[in-house]
Design brief:
Blueprint lengths: L4 E9 L3 H9 L1 H5 L5 E5 L2 E6 L2 E11 L3 E7 L7 E8 L6 E9 L4 H19 L2
Antiparallel strand pairs: 1-7, 2-3, 3-4, 4-5, 5-6, 6-7
Amino acid sequence: MAGKIQIQLEYAINCSPKVLFNRLSTAAGLTEWFADDVRVKGNLFTFIWGKTSQNAEKKIHRENKLVRYEWVGDDLDESYFEFIINQDDLTNDVSLTIIDFTEEDEMTEVRSLWDAQIAKLKHLLGS
């Protein structure tokens, strides 16, 4: 099995970093667009999609800037997904960078999945 490759996606989001960060870093916020349900115990997040669930530990939390979740499980290599909020100093435009890992042959599907999730997030934010 070949190792996973890192992908980086960037989306323009029309809202404040604070509002966006809340949707990326809390169980309630993530349930609105990312997963069917999210349960939290300390820094351990359980993401639930239908009958499937996956655990991730919140590893990095920088208020209104960055949040990283590392997948937890025996069969998982060191993979994580990360949300980085950028705000342009001049225009105040806000963008969201997502870092994720995928198999090379699944890159298109993963990109499409993120596109769909972010479309849902933007709709939710009125962006």
